[in-house]
Amino acid sequence: MAASVFDSALFSRLFPTGEAGRLFTDSAEIRAMLLVEGALARAQGELGLIPEPSALYIHRAAMEVQIDPAALAEATGQNGVCVPGLVAAFRAAVEAPEHAQYIHWGATSQDIIDTGLMLRLRQLLEQCEGTLRAVLQSLATLAEDHAETPMAARTWGQVATPTSFGAHAAHWGAPLLELLEEMPPLRQGALWVSLSGAAGTAGALGPQAPELRAKLAEALRLHDPARSWHSDRTPILRIAGWITRCCAALGKMGEDLTLLAQSGIAEAAPGGGGASSTMPQKQNPVTPGALTALARQAASLSPALSGAALHRQERDGAAWFTEWLTLPQLCLSGASALLLARDLTRAITPDPARMAATLGATGGLVHAEALSFRLAQTMPRPDAQAAVKALCIEAGHSGTPLADLAARDFPDADLTGIFDTRAQLGQAPTEARAFASTVRAL
């Protein structure tokens, strides 16, 4: 097995990453850092901090030069960071010492690495947003089309009360809708430029350091935090938290669909069932299982990333290394989960007949709560609860429908609509349609 399923040709369909996979490669990291070096030089030239001809030369060269990641391996192993080797290789490739001397002027390795990372994370969030919108549209269709399709709600794995499949889909989508709404403030509060120099004081950048940082942020379309964040990993944690919550929401949908596709329930087909190597009848819910696995993966990586936020003093190599080990895997888990969910939500096929059969098989017990509250209109609530509980036990033992037992014991009670499943959907249809309407208005 490959070190990561995200780098594996064998598992590329099971855990797809799409365009996001290209953002977490050596080549992408080097290209992003070169763009930062080029933009930094150009901004310094505009402010007169380095000669403008050199600034323009470096800016152009940063977009054209090709640097082999393998050529930086030795220096990276020695230095613990790739930037010293990258700067040396960039200067050599420029073949113009009079200009090359101004490459990386006043910056530190962490400025270049963190800012380059933010350029890649910005692209990741853009891709995630597009896929998330597609997932929401598919869920809105399910919510709208099945707003009044009755099914059993389940708590603790047992049939509880009636709900609708549309409401079920809306509940899957609600946290995803909130995540989409959080995207603008997430970009503002996380996609930051870093330019603070060796120990966060910007000493080598001179008195124009704040202006230079703002200009670099503008050039790269990042936000200026107006401070150093070398040892404050809040922006990383914000993005990681968003991804973890996204995976959790999609994993919950995966768990539910695994149950709904289970033998003996079969109330919804997730589409594209997987085959067994030996059992011809099997149609395994592969994609729902993958969503659950990715949610667990994200949940396991998140604490490690939180631990990596504990930076000693102005910079902590060990904490930084931990971030490098975990953040790419978390990001690709989120990207993969969204791609899988996009295809899954387009393929979900509910089975209203099976849902109705499940409700019917309870012998009316699914309406026990409604019955107890109806009886509580004419007797104390505890008495009504106890009476209905006794009837439920009798129904379970005798096989007599709860409606018949209730009519026998409470002949004068108005039980109109109590055992009508559609009449007992509560706010489920309203919530389903409200969710669909909100998504359509995006």
From TrEMBL:
Protein family: Belongs to the class-II fumarase/aspartase family.
Annotated protein name in UniProt: Adenylosuccinate lyase family protein
Swiss-Prot/TrEMBL keywords: Lyase
InterPro entries for the chain: AdenyloSucc_lyase_C, Fumarate_lyase_fam, Fumarate_lyase_N, L-Aspartase-like
SUPFAM superfamilies: L-aspartase-like (SSF48557)
Start and end residues of each Adenylosuccinate lyase C-terminal domain: 363-436
Gene Ontology terms, MF aspect: lyase activity
Presence of keyword Lyase: yes
Keyword hit for Lyase: yes
